[in-house]
Model the fold of this input.
Amino acid sequence: MDLPLQLDRTSVVPLHRQLTQQLRQAILDGRLPAGARLPSTRSLAAELGISRNVALAAFDDLFADGYVVGQHGSGTYVAHDLPVLPRPAMPTPSGAPRWLRPTAPPALTFEPLRPGVIEFRLGKPAVQSVPPDVWRKIWADIGSHPPPADYGAPSGDPELRAAIAGYLGRARGVACGPDDIVVTSGAIQSLDLLARAILLPGDVAAFEEPGYPVSRHVLLGRGARILPVPVDDDGVQVDALPSGSDAPYVVYVTPSHQYPLGGRLPIPRRMALLEWAAANDALIVEDDYDSEFRFDAPPLPALAGLDTSGRVAYIGTFSKVLSPALRLGYLVAPPPLRERVVRLKHLTDFHTPWPVQRALASFIQGGHLERHIRRMRREYAEKRAALRATLAPVEPLARLIGLEAGLHAFLELREEIDARDIARETLARNVAVSTLDGYYHAMSPRNGILLGYGGLELAEIVSGAAVLVDVIQRKAR
Amino acid sequence: MDLPLQLDRTSVVPLHRQLTQQLRQAILDGRLPAGARLPSTRSLAAELGISRNVALAAFDDLFADGYVVGQHGSGTYVAHDLPVLPRPAMPTPSGAPRWLRPTAPPALTFEPLRPGVIEFRLGKPAVQSVPPDVWRKIWADIGSHPPPADYGAPSGDPELRAAIAGYLGRARGVACGPDDIVVTSGAIQSLDLLARAILLPGDVAAFEEPGYPVSRHVLLGRGARILPVPVDDDGVQVDALPSGSDAPYVVYVTPSHQYPLGGRLPIPRRMALLEWAAANDALIVEDDYDSEFRFDAPPLPALAGLDTSGRVAYIGTFSKVLSPALRLGYLVAPPPLRERVVRLKHLTDFHTPWPVQRALASFIQGGHLERHIRRMRREYAEKRAALRATLAPVEPLARLIGLEAGLHAFLELREEIDARDIARETLARNVAVSTLDGYYHAMSPRNGILLGYGGLELAEIVSGAAVLVDVIQRKAR
Done:
């Protein structure tokens, strides 16, 4: 065979793959025609000065991909029916195929972080403070055994469920056992499964206004109609919920730290909300997304801990205490609802990936979660104090609220200072903030800026907030 | 303070948690009444012979949970408003709440593996053969950095998408770039997202009969009506698909290794299927769940590689080449469909967990996936040979088919030997097999047994198959 085969021993591409590629290219461009006999692996190895195993691996690949036929002593030949040549690109159906329904699902924006910009983005925790030794050990454990040979339980790993139940009892006063927990791939999935279990297209869901856009879109994506319920500095205005025949089936709330305004629902409103749900046979969806973090303020019991009639579905997440990229959360729901959610979870993705479930079970069982939360509480308290101190000079022009809990706050601006102008001008100076108007569904928005500070370094908070102060003060002049 | 605090230094429970628990108990049962002043952490530490940090940690916990108030020099007191006491159990709504819709979603069974039983379960790969060094290193890398501070792209990690696109081009002749790929949490999620993108309740979906029950339930869970399309030993009978106004929008097929009968769809049927889809403006969903494994048989091109008109959505998975518990798969779909799927993925769980995506990207980029597949092909070929040899004696009573590819085969039994009797009797001898009847939606089933052999050891295959032979032979007497 007279083929110009050239192997590059300095390349990162393994030798057998180089050989495969060059032989395949020779077959595809006709230098090795159909039916041609290839040299034996032994002679090829000798000719190229490689081990015979390298040649064997290349031949295996070519055989597997259908470029050559025959094997084991009888010789290797270029196949007559070559595999279909790769197309240059994916074909696109012409026109509008009938299987592509006219209505597209609602679109959420996803923007990766911009390097060089101080982003006061909501929901970003301080991942640099995850204890490196513990983190390393937990993942090393995952890699120290082969993966499971079979699927796991749709409701989640039993040890993780037990660990979460214990944590919820200790930290949130929600008494539940492992069987009450469903492990999910994050709060979005928890809400999506709930919506699928209870909502039919056209059903009305009451939703905080302003509220968490992702959750609202999840409900819209299920065909729900949104009934906006106004929010004030103390959270959702329970007395604005319609009763009787107008009462919605379901209401979505964030009582620990209203998303995005930051209010904490007072006890009397909590009791009133539970009474409303009982009187109107409705389900309360409690999204407790960052309840772990609260400062100089007494804890308030979760609705799920106060509920005595099985009308609260509780959504928890590890996105804020660890990382949103883990996609791990959980759901506590009254038994008949929980059973449906487990069935739907099975039909949706069978179960949440095993490595992530096991890693979190170790993290909680070893006491690391609660230790980490305690440490983060102190760290966030410092960041919060720095934010407040740096923003103090704008006080006559703006009011900072929602700082008692969570990892973000709301800076309400005086009417004549347009929040969108401020956001545009800070961005020009590499400081990104979001304006409140994007969080509304229907009502006219309050004028202000949201500041997520959890994931920023102290120095970034101070310099970013200083830019904000400067921009606001110039605007007010 | 005269409290009987007893710390156990030999316990696995950390000292600070023991202290927290005992103080909390004392508060709850009234030994420490509301308003009582706790001793200082310094004196408590001295009295108990523990470090002050341990006492501080316990006080932090009690403060965080709302059992005590005040801090930093001014003294610590038992709170007046105690956190709500944990309930004994989750409350259940009485009667049938209106938010629990009358129709429950379809239920799939999930049975964990039974220890001590040789289970010829379908879809179980040989996880013990995953190379331990590589596996260890890949997960160690995950643990060597803090987790990401923010969410990832809904379509998946860009490096993983590039790695999958490269692999698909090399191994399956499906030419696509990273942007054509959507990373999903397994084949079930791929199908569920597709169903959500294209099916409205009541729409008809054509489905192989017999077929993969989980996929059928996913479609049923979306409200689809199933149109069963008969399958023979060569796969789905394309000429049985209705045309014209009766043609369904979508057909689900497993052409590489029909699930469960094991046929490989011949090229003429593949071309006919693509022509049918073009003529009837339908979408083909190609579930290529175990195409990596094929024995003494030439490769057949994927439908997605033959498609020139954008009518194939291709579902791939790492469940069979690595482990089903990873919950990692991918979808290749024509551009307008792919965009919808990405939107729905965002609304469903935002993205697949980052650790699993990163681990698989390393596995593919390092060349380990293809090396592993080559090794597994040899291992499975041996297992398959052992299964065939051990079952040879029943040949007049039973016919073994579907062995050219995949990790399972079908043993068709003569009419007078009832498959369910055989399964019952082998189970009594600790050998579990499934019968074909469970895989049908509507038509009358063929009589036989399914044998998943991928995850069993060679010795288990031989002894399990020997039991099966014995049971069949006794039955035929």
User: Anything to note?
Assistant: The two ends of chain B are 84 Å apart (CA to CA). Chain B touches chain A through 136 residues (CB under 8 Å). The longest helix of chain B spans residues 368-391. The mean pLDDT of chain B is 91.
